[in-house]
Predict the 3D structure of the following.
Amino acid sequence: MARIVAGEGRVTVLRLLQRWPDRYAVLAYTTTGAYGTTAVVGYVPVPGVPDPSLLDVAARHRPALMYGSTGTEGFAEACWLISVGWSARTVPKPGTLELRHAAWTLEADGTVELGGSMYGHDRLHFGRFSLTDPELMNRARALLDPS
């Protein structure tokens, strides 16, 4: 059974090309813990779209070439996922939703302890992300709507 992590605060939601050339997902990034030391990255479930495995999406980008390894399973993939969220927040592309304050829950597929600071975070929770407000959830899902 997945562990539930919940919080509220700033949430960045983006459309992510997860498999070339045309399979997209909606990704959400936020933080929790003292001063945001824990990154939270999750996929937003969209009806009719298969749920992605975030570590598999990250692994396809060969993140160990950039981040190396600490011996912690999933370290490089966690760094890549954090980088995607952090980058979307710092330099948002058109269509990115920047929610200044939103309540959320994450059904965590896992947690990676980084063993040091990466983009200001020392751990990552990842999994299935939901916004508590149904209107915000619909806006997030709409990122995959081409119209």
In short: Residues 73 and 112 are 8 Å apart (CA to CA). The chain has a mean pLDDT of 93. The beta strands are 3-19, 23-32, 38-44, 97-118, 121-131. The first strand starts at residue 3 and ends at 19.
